[in-house]
Design a protein that fits this description.
The chain has a single domain, classed as tt1808, chain A (Alpha-Beta Complex). The chain is 39% helix and 25% strand. It has 8 helices and 14 strands. Strand 13 and strand 14 form a beta hairpin. Helix 3 packs parallel to helix 8.
Length: 221
Amino acid sequence: MTTKAELIYLDPDFPVMLDELNTAWKEEQQRRRIFREELTPEMKAEFIEGQVIMHSPAMARHILATKHLCILLQTWVAEHRLGLVTMEKALVCLTRNDYEPDIAFFKGFTAQSVSPTLMEFPAPDFVVEVISPSTEHYDRGIKMKDYASHGVSEYWMVDCKLRIVEQYLLNTEARRYDAPSKHEESARVRSKVIEGFEIPVAAIFDEHAQHEAMKEMMKLF
């Protein structure tokens, strides 16, 4: 079966298309450099497919879900010295795009190589995106493809409206995510990448459930 790249290469206009693509790529990278230079700690922005995407302030449920999950994850990872957890403002710089995942986890050598002054993070091992109406098409579209192609082994999408967690695991051979496991509020979700990390889904959405999950977790230390 002929690939898309082979079809382009066989096209008589391939040299012209290549020149146009190179020009477009150089222009896009220049915009990307300007984006990084102008990005401030107060801004919530990403660089996606050549465009600067500015994000509006999040709903309270989005903020709280991110906070609840991050506290549980950070507590577990720190206690077991499994790596590094970041929240929101870590700029993950992939081949073409720059993202600010709601939560990211880096393990092993990658975590150890993160210096105090690092501004541009490599691909994480685990990513959480708390979806919202304005970002869901990115989270389910280009981000999912990009995370998979860059080896992010596990990807959670948290839906605050439906109160579920979609857990995607990477098929390394196909460089894509397999069909997700969907965990409802009454269930528990266990990470495949972060050793031993398992929580009630309700702990992401409800403060009391989060406190109970924390107490349960502390008993295991």
